[in-house]
Amino acid sequence: VSLLKVGWYNAVLQPAFHLPYPDDTLAFVVLSTPSMFDKALKPFVSKERLKIIRDPVDQCVSHHLSRVKEQFPDQRVDVMFDYEMLPSRKPKFLAQTAAHVAGAAYYYQRKDVKLDPWGKKKIFGVCIHPKYGGWFAIRALLLFPDIQVPCLEQPAPVDCVSMEEKRIELLEQFNFHWQDGRYRDIIEVKERYSEEQKAYFATPPAERLRLLGLSQEAQ
To answer: Which protein family is named in the record (predicted)?
Structure first.
């Protein structure tokens, strides 16, 4: 987790995307690291085998964050998940922006390239972690509405892809060749997904249950 103030997030976004909390409200952005698959997901699936499992990863993350909430019985804790949408079909929060302003991972975007080679093409940005490269995910935002932290100092994310040509390579790979996952290794990483985990995420969602030993009947 990396902590942030809501005001840092709102300051870089248009009002339509602002979080409806005071600027000094304490929040945490929650990442999953490569070891999540073995340390959290597989034990969760094994334990919940007889219950209905629709999306193992989302349900696993929800389970663990509900346990976090239980540790603060006297506090209001709001949780926003990366996959949740508002009625307007906008995401509840922009995960990559939250990670960037919290200093958790650097959000590389088209504006970070001086000599833009893409013309009128739509180019999406991507977060890179200084330790895990692209081998991680942003899962949720935890908000503590009753805790104000006016003195919190904002950390800068680590700019680990600082060379112009590397940034172009990263955005090219992410936008046009994302299936092969090469963008994830744009820097030297300390840890990456296991072969089993790569196979899981490369498998269409409807077939992933079988990889975890869950039959469609059990589901």
So the answer is: Belongs to the MMACHC family.
Amino acid at 160: C
Structural domains of the chain, count: 1
User: Residue 131: inside a domain, yes or no?
Assistant: yes
Domain ranges, residue 128: 2-211
Report the alpha-carbon distance of residue 86 to residue 122 in Å, rounded. 24
CA atoms within 13 A on the CB side of 108: 30
Look up the pTM and report it. Answer: 0.92
The SS3 of residue 22 is coil
**Does 219 fall in a domain?**
no
